[in-house]
Amino acid sequence: MGAVFYHYVRHVVVPRSLRSVLRFRPLELDATARRLARCADVDDLRRVAKRRLPGGVFDYADGAAEDELTRRANQQGFRDLVFDPRVLRDVRDVEVSTTLLGRRLPIPLVLSPTGFTRIFHPEGELAVARAAARRGIPYSLSTMSTRSIEEVAAVSDGPKWFQVYVWRDRGLVKELVQRAAAAGYEALLLTVDTAVLGRRERDVRRGFTLPPKIGLGTLVDGAVHPAWTYAFTRSDPIEFANMAGDGSRDGTTAVALADYINSQFDPSFSWGDLDWLRSVSTLPVILKGIQSVPDATRAAAEGIEAIALSNHGGRQLDGSPAVVRLIRPVVDAVGDSMAVLCDGGIRRGSDIVKACALGATACMAGRAYLYGLAAGGERGVDHVLGLLDAGVRRTLALVGEPSIEGIRPDLVRWP
Q1: Model confidence pLDDT, tens digit, residues 120-166
Q2: In-domain check, residue 313
Q3: What is the pTM of this model?
Q4: Residues 66, 148: one domain?
């Protein structure tokens, strides 16, 4: 039908004199394809996600702690950093791959863990894992995921990491990391900035909880977002998939497990406890949540394989430093003793290039792919990864650098 309409408009409605200078875009009948075609960057996807999601769900992904100063500082830090481009360089063949933990990555990018991903799209973690696997990008599965370790492994033959919270119930942690190893996950991403949970005031103002509780506000919000509500109500119940079905841990549903999990964060976990984690798994350990040079050097002294400079996307301590400003001081302090990742504020391929110029081995992104997932499901995640990949390649060519691994610190500067 669309082809017939296009033919009619082109050959009947439009005069021949205009047909010589006008080009008509074929009519796109796929609503998701139309939405994504109009999204030129991650911020465009964010706007689509905001329009399609109930307010509480969007704010859960988009919001941060208290005044959200750190969330904004993460992005502003990348914007403040400027390039000193070189010209007349041979950049016909730009090389964007790099090596991380012994694996060659097609682009210096890892997908960060995000909890409760199925509230953004019914496929949740499965969609993200499949999109990452197609590009050979590591996907980090959250302990708080809504698809299990095994379910994700079944749909993804790409590199996978498992994100770990070391809770009071060490038997549960041991079980999870050993399941991850058995399912082919390649590393443990230990989150170290959650001694207690940050105060996320957008959620407080909306009365938003995980799992979502049904109330009048929820019903009204659902009514004005019918596509999300229709998909949500037709999907399987959302639960903490890695723990569901274990009656010894307070039930099989997300509602029953929520209080148990919230009580499990262990503020006593410290450097001395790292040996325990190593005793129950042989997978390499990445510490996610390092926010200072002294902690980075301590991690190097402990023999940690990699660290992720991260403030949890600004969701924990408001006022913690912008991640991009930590990279150079940390790399100067630890040298080549371990890989240094940058997690927070990545929205463009140029951000990845800036981080690598400062010395980061690779970057991590979480919110960016959640916006894509909410905007277009698995194809939305594909769209985000395509934007970032193209952005890295384009930026390297424009700054006159043929290789991401050969990039120099003097390519960027703070004004």
Answers
A1: 999 999 999 999 999 999 999 999 999 999 999 999 999 999 999 98
A2: yes
A3: 0.91
A4: yes
State which residues form the domain around 183. Answer: 42-203+237-413
In this predicted structure, the answer to whether residue 248 has a pLDDT above a threshold of 60 is: no
Nearest to 400 by CA among 409, 414, 411, 415: 411
* Chain segment 343-379, per-residue pLDDT in tens: 999 999 999 999 999 999 999 999 999 999 999 999 9
Angle between helices 324-334 and 69-80 (to 10 degrees): 70
Report d(CA 323, CA 321) in Å as an integer. 6
Q: How many domains does the chain have?
A: 2
Residue 224 lies in a domain: no
302 and 153 belong to one structural domain = yes
CATH number of the domain encompassing residue 401: 3.20.20.70
Task: Tell me the C-alpha distance between 366 and 224, whole Å.
Answer: 26
Shared domain for 70 and 6, answered yes or no, is: no
The type of residue at 257 is: L
Considering the domain architecture, whether residues 22 and 144 belong to the same structural domain is answered as no
Catalytic positions: 312
pLDDT tier at 210 (50, 70, 90 boundaries)?
low
